[in-house]
Write a structure and sequence with these properties.
17% strand, disordered N terminus, 254 residues, eight-stranded parallel sheet, alpha/beta, 11 helices, homotetramer, TIM Barrel
């Protein structure tokens, strides 16, 4: 079933069950994924969201590494129209079509061309009930979901909703420049362990403070399937260069 | 100062101070304004938001009545690029550029081409402090603000933040098909009275349950400067026809 | 460890590990528990909270069935001083001592004599992160925790925080008079199954619409360890009589 | 009408209309009021809330200065039973009796013996609509209301709901030890000016950073009717001494 969902989303395929050369069905590791969250940085607002996305796509293509972007709502459509890499919204509300002025409807995000959405980022924390609803709405609408969690226990909790990806981000390290994969590797390994106990197929990202290739390398070696990064790329003097070092680290970790 | 702000927004001019033929500076009535809120209705999502906006523009032009639309965030840019009438966001968050994943930044809405924004719609009610911040952010970003309020007292309270427009919408009548201007004219006149006591220049809209020309006529006769309407137009079998009847009522009330 | 915590709370002992007559350590069923939530009903506010609690204690004693009450914050101390049965707060905030005006501090609830607290009742739904924090704060303060969840998936998610009890309450049935254990027995069995997969020792209550002995009997037979009930008792013409029928059902189900 | 409400609350009388010796009805200044907010400080939780309240009462009595306390919900009843000074809740929810688990009902606070309640403290900020509802609920229940506001504009906005008192507290100075009355006297005078434009009878407190007698003196000289203070008293090494200096400043300012 998971596989089928992937097939429906040709642009994004983070992992899969596969029959290996001995004829056995095995779970293969997901292809590492670097997801860049544009937050509400002016450096990644409006036209600059498109420019940055194009740069990110090019660096990823050159390195042969899977990259994606998460621009603001108003920029989703033009970014999705300008690049071929996965484009994520930063949030959807757990509302269905109707009288919900000012809310972010899954169908609207999908119609704009988004491939998926972040859910429960620590800067847009949700009620437990709304996390689950948002994941289900994403599924029904054909959007991939990346649910954020600040602790290992919470990562396992959100993995129960069966999103496509879980992203571990200790809030205290977000934007700190101190990478979770180096400052607090235990939370990453503990998260992987706890998530895997309840969900064997969800992809696992980690984030917070990721700012250079070594941070990315460390993250992958801890058993994650990629990183969620924001200021480390968006606020960098030279985003392309930093992203290139991230990609190099992905290849090194392979 | 108010006038100057209007000059900076050629597309939207709801009212003005003017020197009349006797040479006296007077406050003239605002040109009536019909603002159509698309909420998260599928009938007004994605491409249908553009189509509906074009229809609305055409009906307004034919009648010579000022109309505007408030589509979802993801649709703002393409709607703004397709029509010449005022385009409003349905909400902005009281955040400044930076680490605010999933929030709606005034600059982003502005960059998408919006002329203004709703604030504090009853379906997206805000903290008092955030209402004021959002109005100031709108001003700084060059967005017009329409702040909603459910009672006469609240209408006066939000008028103190000096938005461009205040919209009275008793929540219990929203989407009811029973027009505030007929079901509860007292709340409208009371709102106008209380708002005017603290703010002489803010334009005053009313909304909730407005579904035909008579409702619009009644609203204007109660001293408002226009109406905020959603399902009455968006969910109508024939939105153009209903809007035409609204426009006819505006002209009749003049 | 669980056992030890129980020993520290002599008034409340919902279940335990025990060495049976063959010398094997086994998990025994929790003694069924009927927890009555007073909500903000006037029938259970102020002095009436004390009177009702005394009646509840007496009925429970007479029947030999474990009962507990969850009065409002202002009534916790006098209720706890008047009865010997477990007394729960209806909510605690995930705040530590300090500058949190208007919040409900775990230490304050504990100092008032409460034995535990509800967390994440659907009428006071919490952010995922705050549910986990509140459970940990309860543990640190020596309060037992009953975390509510509206779906089977959410029940498992909150069970990961290792509260003392999980309460399944489909919001749509709360206050409906239609008992979850009869209207939707599948959600109860599914919850029990999913919770047990991730947590073997948490006690499981169910609630929503429970209004007579048969509803209680059905709930216990579905594998729960008790019920959470509010209007079924508090708004009953004769609360003692209804509770007596609940107790009778508990004994019948044993 | 205001006067009548005061008569109904013999313990609290912040000001009044009075016929002076020439027979003219005049508005007299309110008797200065020092309101001590206990927040969730452990120093003022449980029994220590009662002890501190008694000390505060004694210092106020000795100096002949009106003082009041705002303990946590669970402590309201025993504090109200132990002292004769005004006792305020720190918050009420805008709910009526019924199915509102975990909420703070005005009737419950009143039944516990409270004289009034804070509303919209910056640490428990409310939706605009809920501020107004809470003030009306307080009136209906016979509770005095002190509505907090962080800016001059917001102070005027909440004054429109006609609470008994408005408290100006710039959030950035709360707990800072830098008194609003000295760091930012303009916000106080501006607030007084704006509040008086829309409400002539509401009492005006100010707060944030108040920590010694001079701060209190400055606050009163700026036209306020008292101060709202928390850590300045509760976290002081010698609360009685600090409060005595506050009282001395009140008398000096008279």
């Amino acid at each position: 079933m998971y596989n089928r969902r992937i097939r429906n989303h040709p642009k994004v395929s983070y992992g899969h069950w596969a029959v290996n050369w001995t004829g056995v069905l095995t779970m293969e590791r997901y292809e590492p994924f670097l997801l860049i969250n544009f937050k509400t940085y002016l450096e990644a607002t409006g036209k600059r969201a498109v420019e940055l996305s194009k740069q990110i796509e090019k660096v990823g293509e050159n390195a042969g590494v899977k990259v994606g972007v998460a621009p603001q709502f108003c920029d989703l459509e033009k970014v999705a129209a300008s690049v071929g890499i996965p484009v994520f919204a930063q949030h959807i509300d757990s509302v269905t079509p109707g009288a919900s002025t000012g809310h972010v409807l899954a169908e609207s995000v999908k119609a704009a061309g988004a491939d998926g959405t972040l859910i429960n980022h620590s800067e847009k924390a949700l009620l437990l009930i709304d996390i689950d609803r948002a994941v289900q709405l994403a599924k029904q609408t054909g959007l991939r979901s990346v649910v954020c969690a600040g602790t290992a226990r919470m990562a396992a909790a959100v993995a129960l909703s069966e999103p496509d990806m879980v992203a571990i981000e200790p809030p205290e390290l977000i934007g700190s420049g101190r990478a979770v994969s180096k400052e607090n590797p235990e939370i990453v390994t503990e998260s992987v362990k706890r998530v895997r106990r309840v969900n064997r197929t969800v992809a696992i990202l980690c984030g917070a403070g990721i700012s250079n290739g070594d941070d990315v390398y460390a993250a992958l070696k801890l058993g994650t399937d990629g990183v969620l990064v924001a200021s480390g790329i968006v606020k960098a003097t030279n985003p392309k260069e930093v992203l290139a070092s991230f990609c190099e680290a992905v290849l090194r970790a392979a």
